[in-house]
């Protein structure tokens, strides 16, 4: 399987449920800002609402960092609205919930479970150029941490803004970074 890192996101146009309205979102809408694509198997399930609620709790901070969040499943935008209206956890979601019933977006990010017609639990951080900088795929029973994604956003933004520097493991904003050089080889 070829790496998806630094690959451009697929072109798409899809309907989404956003803040009580239906809206069309395209790949062109994504470019020019940071974005998180959060794929999940299905609405009205078990792990998925805990993840979307967790991301909703971090959404304000992410927006402050210039990041838009897009949750995506192969359900329709109509199903997203029904779920939003009936679930206390999903009722907290204000970011776009994209419907991908054809699977075009899901396949474009290479997270389609073909035999089920559902998305893997995949998370992707996309830079303002539309290039994927972080890609994670979890097994269906393992929930993600939105707080850790916030940390990764801050690291990716730091690296983009500070040419020649990299963030070490578990880096937190304000922490020490590294400047790769011949002098560091074998010293870490």
TrEMBL record:
Reaction catalysed by this enzyme: a hydroperoxide + NADH + H(+) = an alcohol + NAD(+) + H2O
Query: EC number(s) for this protein?
Result: 1.11.1.26
Q: What is the annotated localization of this protein?
A: Cytoplasm
Give the matching PROSITE patterns: THIOREDOXIN_2
- What keywords were assigned to this record? Antioxidant, Cytoplasm, Disulfide bond, Oxidoreductase, Peroxidase, Redox-active center
CDD domains attached to this UniProt entry: PRX_Typ2cys
Instruction: Provide the leader sequence positions.
Output: none
Q: Which residues form the Thioredoxin domain?
A: 3-158
Q: What is its main location?
A: cytoplasm
Q: Is Transcription one of the keywords UniProt gives this record? A: no
Q: Could you tell me which InterPro entries the record lists for this protein?
A: AhpC, AhpC/TSA, Peroxiredoxin, Peroxiredoxin_AhpC-typ, Peroxiredoxin_C, Thioredoxin-like_sf, Thioredoxin_domain
Gene3D superfamilies cross-referenced by the UniProt entry: Glutaredoxin
Homology family = Belongs to the peroxiredoxin family. AhpC/Prx1 subfamily.
NCBIfam families tied to this protein: AhpC (TIGR03137)
PANTHER family linked: ALKYL HYDROPEROXIDE REDUCTASE C (PTHR10681:SF121), THIOREDOXIN PEROXIDASE (PTHR10681)
The job of this chain, per UniProt, is described as: Thiol-specific peroxidase that catalyzes the reduction of hydrogen peroxide and organic hydroperoxides to water and alcohols, respectively. Plays a role in cell protection against oxidative stress by detoxifying peroxides.
**Subunit-structure text:** Homodimer; disulfide-linked, upon oxidation. 5 homodimers assemble to form a ring-like decamer.
Query: Mind telling me what this protein is named?
Result: Alkyl hydroperoxide reductase C
Q: What taxonomic classification does the UniProt entry list for its organism? A: Bacteria, Pseudomonadati, Pseudomonadota, Gammaproteobacteria, Moraxellales
Q: Which gene encodes it?
A: ahpC
